[in-house]
Task: inverse folding
C-alpha cells in the first residue's frame, strides 16, 4: 500500500509539473529561426534562453526606462514593440510612451490627437509623422490613446538637426531664445566609444579623410548627439512629470545598441535611473544557430529577426536614390531661424 502511494504521488507531481509548471519550473522553448518577417525570437543573452513576451515583461517589471530598439520599417520589430507595450501595461498601467518618431516641436499636435481634438490624417500632417506611421507606429499610439497614456514626442526638431548637420553646432546660436530653451542643456554632451562607432558606420570603417570631409562628419556627428541628448532629456523630463510611471521608448537601434547613444546619455545625466535595452539582431540566412556570441553586448535582451529584402541590387540605382534624398534635404536654407 505504501509503495502504491509513493508511485501515485510521483505520478501526480509529474502531471502537475507538466500542466502548471510546479515551483515555477517551465520547460525551455528551443531558439528557432524566425519563419516570417513578423516573427521574433526574444533571447536573454546572459543565459542564451528564449523568452516569451510575458517572461520578458516580468524581467522588466522593476525597470524605469525600457528602450526598444528597431530597424526602421522592420515589421517584426514594430510588432514586438506593440506586444511589449501591452504586456508591460498589464503589469503596471502607469506607463508613458516615448518616441523618437515624433519631434518635440510637434508635442501639441500629438496631444491634440490623444485628446480626440484631431483625426489621424491631421496628426500625420500636423506632427510631420514618418511615412511608415500607419504601418509601424499606429498600434503604439492607438494603445496609448485607448488607455489615456501620455505620448512623448522625444526627438529634436528635424530642421534644427539637419542644419546642425550642415552648419555645425554654432547654428544653435541663431535660434530664438524660446526655441533654444526647448533643447537640452549641453546638447552635444558625448560619451566614450560612440564617435568611433559612428565614424565606422558612416565611413565604412575608413579613418582617413580630407579636411572638408572631416568637417562634414564632425557636423553630422553633432547632429546625432543633438538627437540623442534631446531624447535622453525628454525621457528624464517624463520621469519627473509622471512619477511612478514606466517609460517605454522606441528608437532606431543605433541610438541604444551596446548602451551607447541615448542610453549612455541617460546614464550620464541621471546615473540612478534604471534602463533596460532590447535590441534587434538579424539572424543570417546561412546560420544554423542564432549568432549570439558576437551580439551579447548589444542589449540586455535581444530579439532575432529575418533580414529585410535588399532595396537595390543595382549600384547605379542605389546611388541615384541616395542623391535624390540628399537633394531633398538640401532645400533647407539654414539661415537664421525665426520660428
Result:
Amino acid at each position: 500500500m505504501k509503495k502504491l502511494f509513493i508511485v501515485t504521488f510521483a505520478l501526480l507531481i509529474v502531471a502537475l509539473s507538466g500542466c502548471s509548471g510546479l515551483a515555477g519550473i517551465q520547460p525551455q522553448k528551443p531558439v528557432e529561426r524566425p519563419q516570417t518577417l513578423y516573427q521574433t525570437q526574444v533571447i536573454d543573452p546572459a543565459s542564451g534562453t528564449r523568452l516569451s513576451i510575458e517572461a520578458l515583461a516580468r524581467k522588466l517589471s522593476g525597470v524605469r526606462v525600457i528602450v526598444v530598439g528597431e530597424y526602421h520599417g522592420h515589421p517584426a520589430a514594430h510588432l514586438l514593440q506593440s506586444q511589449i507595450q501591452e504586456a508591460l501595461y498589464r503589469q503596471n498601467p502607469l506607463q508613458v510612451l516615448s518616441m523618437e518618431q515624433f519631434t518635440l516641436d510637434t508635442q501639441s499636435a500629438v496631444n491634440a490627437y490623444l485628446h480626440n481634438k484631431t483625426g489621424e490624417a491631421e496628426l500625420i500632417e500636423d506632427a510631420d509623422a514618418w511615412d511608415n506611421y500607419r504601418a509601424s507606429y499606429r498600434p503604439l499610439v492607438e494603445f496609448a490613446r485607448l488607455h489615456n497614456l501620455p505620448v512623448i514626442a522625444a526627438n529634436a526638431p528635424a530642421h534644427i538637426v539637419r542644419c546642425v548637420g550642415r552648419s555645425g553646432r554654432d547654428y544653435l546660436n541663431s535660434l530664438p531664445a524660446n526655441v533654444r530653451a526647448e533643447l537640452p542643456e549641453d546638447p552635444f554632451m558625448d560619451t566614450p566609444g560612440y564617435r568611433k562607432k559612428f565614424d565606422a558606420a558612416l565611413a565604412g570603417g575608413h579613418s582617413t579623410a580630407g579636411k572638408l570631409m572631416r568637417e562634414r562628419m564632425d557636423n553630422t556627428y553633432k547632429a546625432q548627439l543633438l538627437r540623442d541628448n534631446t531624447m535622453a532629456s525628454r525621457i528624464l523630463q517624463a520621469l519627473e512629470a509622471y512619477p511612478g510611471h514606466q517609460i517605454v521608448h522606441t528608437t532606431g537601434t543605433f541610438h541604444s545598441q551596446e548602451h551607447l547613444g541615448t542610453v549612455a546619455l541617460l546614464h550620464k545625466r541621471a546615473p540612478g535611473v534604471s534602463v533596460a535595452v532590447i535590441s534587434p539582431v538579424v539572424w543570417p540566412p546561412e546560420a544554423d544557430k542564432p549568432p549570439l556570441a558576437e551580439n551579447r553586448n548589444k542589449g540586455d535582451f535581444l530579439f532575432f529577426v529575418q533580414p529585410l529584402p535588399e532595396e537595390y541590387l543595382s549600384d547605379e540605382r542605389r546611388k541615384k536614390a541616395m542623391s535624390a534624398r540628399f537633394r531633398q534635404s538640401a532645400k533647407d536654407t539654414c539661415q537664421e531661424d525665426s520660428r
About this structure: The radius of gyration is 23 Å. Strands lie at 41-44, 49-50, 65-70, 95-103, 151-155, 246-252, 275-282, 301-305. Residues 29 and 50 are 6 Å apart (CA to CA).
